[in-house]
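Raw record, unedited: Fpg/Nei family DNA glycosylase
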Amino acid sequence: MPEMPEVEGLRAHLEQNLVGRTVTSAQLAAFSALKTFEVPLTALQGLDVTAVERHGKFLAVGVDGLWLAFHLARAGWLTWHDPVPATPVRPSKGPLALRLAFEGVPDSPDADNTGEGPVGFSLTEAGTQKHLAVYVVPDLALVPGIARLGPDPLADGFDLEAFRGVLAEHGRTQLKGLLKDQSVFAGIGNAYSDEILQAARLSPFKLAGSLTPDESAALFEAVRDDLTAAIGRAVGAKPAQLKDGKRTHLRVHGKGGEPCPTCGTTIAEVSFADSFLNYCPGCQTGGKLLADRRMSKLLK
């Protein structure tokens, strides 16, 4: 699942290459992906791109008073086209959900293509479970997932005091679930929550309200440092490079059975019905293993 750093990388790429261009085509391949109907998708055609924003794990392309917002969900991705395929998009059960084409000269002199030829992107989703969501709205507050977002943990005004306030408000919640909850912290998902907790040397099942001042400070620092570093690697990369770039730099997530790069302990895994987490027993749980079952708790 793309998380804040990868989505920010996509945002930067789209902003650089689309702002100033005109939407010439918006073609829907998966009708289930479009969640709004009051403003038709075709209303975007002929409008100029004015902005590209990220809200948590949502991307939003602003076009003359309207917004095309989308969430890539677990198995979705954005593919950049230069040029856009000439083959018309047709409804199907394949991975393609949406394709947009743009013409004109982008505002940025650093754009990949500054000519008049059409460029664009496709949204695709692998697998049979389709959760990719697309919205066409006059106001981003009309997108339910954006309206319920918690604070961006990298926002300038979000300091240690504000962070501790969130922890206190959700004191009976385990850290892993808290970090992933988009209504609490916008943009952190399964992979980076594992990375953050390993950097902070905290168990994923430790309760938020049980942290000492030193532990909460370490967690806040890990959130800021890990996400900032990942964004630094993602911004400037092409969309096709972002997935591999993410995997290359992960320390514990997806590394079950491998040695922890910090202490050398074998990285362990806890599996759930539809997801998993990784952690280092040496760094995070005093050498103890977590029970590998749903609703796991630290073995005592």
